[in-house]
Fold:
Amino acid sequence: MLSSAMMRTTRGSSPRSPRRKESFMNRFSGLIVGLVVIAAAACAPSVNVEQERATLLAADRDWSQTTKEPEKFVSYFADGAAIHAPGMPVVTGTEAIRKTYTEMSKAPGFALSWTPTRADVSGNIGYTVGTYQMTMGGTTEQGKYVTVWKKEGDAWKVAEDIFNADATPKPPAGTHTMLAPGEVTWGGTPPGLPEGARAAVISGDPGKPEPYVLRAQLPANYRIAPHWHPTMENITVLSGTVALGMGDKFDESAMKDVPVGGFASLPAEMHHFFMSKSAATIQVHGMGPFAITYVNPADDPRTKKTN
Structure:
């Protein structure tokens, strides 16, 4: 009986022995991992959260002093940063941000200021919140913002900038426009275009963020090198024939004629080139501010004048 009992005890305990050993090893491994984590945390440099918050607020305030210097303004952005402006596509990357902000800052009466009111930090990520005011083309907008920052080395850099207005800004009061042909006032060549053209503003102000209509009288074979505009351009041919081509190089064989009565609409930032096949008058309308950027800066008449 005793022998049988011992055999039963041995048989009953033998299968459980590996499980107990495995359970012990799991607990032992877990203990080791826990000790490693605790040791790593103990060795990591401690972060003074209040000090980092103050540093981040100071960085945001310093950034707010660069609005009149586009290069300094853009230097606060991290690679791959993005601006999320209401009613616009997301602007991603420092080059796109530089281009957009530089064009915007050229608008008449442009001014931008903001005041950070709060900051918080968790590790190498932080954010600031505050209020802003922006004036452009006679219209002032007030709103709030949230900026997400990330720490690169010892410096805080902007990763995401998000803002929206407190209310839709009211456009300047408009007036109706009715002009007889003899009442159109023609001036010289607009800035940024090759010499030889005459222009007249029919309605609005092309330098402001508002609807505008202008006309241009062009001699035959008047050419504009590849360029683009930050807003949509709409062209109606009132007399003569013009031609348009798309791309970064002037290629007359790739151009399409637009005769009198014809129309062309070019999306914002589309690279294109232009020539008049004969003496022509065109009408251009769109939403300002009107600006022109040449694909090759050497083609810019404004650059040639300063050299």
